[in-house]
Amino acid sequence: MRSTSVTTTDVLIGDFKTNRPAPRRIEDVPESYVNQLALYRALLMTLYPRHMIRAALIWTDVPDLMEISATALDHALARLTSA
């Protein structure tokens, strides 16, 4: 399940995940989750070119909102598009 919030300057993508136990560190997040958010972000960047696009995983087990850095999303997208 995903949720998106749009303001005049930002777009926030929130992707709910039910892992039990939820990862506490970004290094422990499955790569496929970061890849998924990177693809969503790339699409939204074309729809909202003047907005800052942010992405987060929302863990239902904790609950916790874990924002994924733009750098991590850029690296994931680069890996996906170079394959």
CA gyration radius, whole angstroms: 13 Å
| Proportion in β-strands | 25-35%
What structural class do helix, strand and pairing data support? alpha+beta
Looking at the structure, what is the overall shape?
Answer: globular
CA-to-CA gap between the ends? Answer: 27 Å
- Helix percentage range: 25-40%
Q: Treating each run of at least 4 consecutive H or I residues as one helix, how many helices?
A: 2
Q: Give the neighbour order of strands across the main sheet.
A: 1-2-3-4
Compressed to H and E, one letter per element, the order equals EEHEEH
Chain-averaged pLDDT: 94
Low-pLDDT runs: none
Number of beta-strand segments: 4
Please give the largest β-sheet. 4 strands, mixed
Summarize this entry quickly:
By secondary structure, this protein is an alpha+beta fold.
Descriptive tags:
83 residues, alpha+beta, four-stranded mixed beta sheet, 2 helices, 4 strands
Question: Describe it for me?
Answer:
The protein is an alpha+beta fold. The protein contains two helices and four strands, in the order ββαββα. β3 (52-59) and β4 (64-68) form a beta hairpin. α1 packs across α2. The longest helix has 17 residues, at 31-47. The radius of gyration is 13 Å and the shape is globular.
Write the layout of secondary structure elements.
Elements: E1 2-6, E2 10-17, H1 31-47, E3 52-59, E4 64-68, H2 70-82
Helix pairs in contact: 1-2
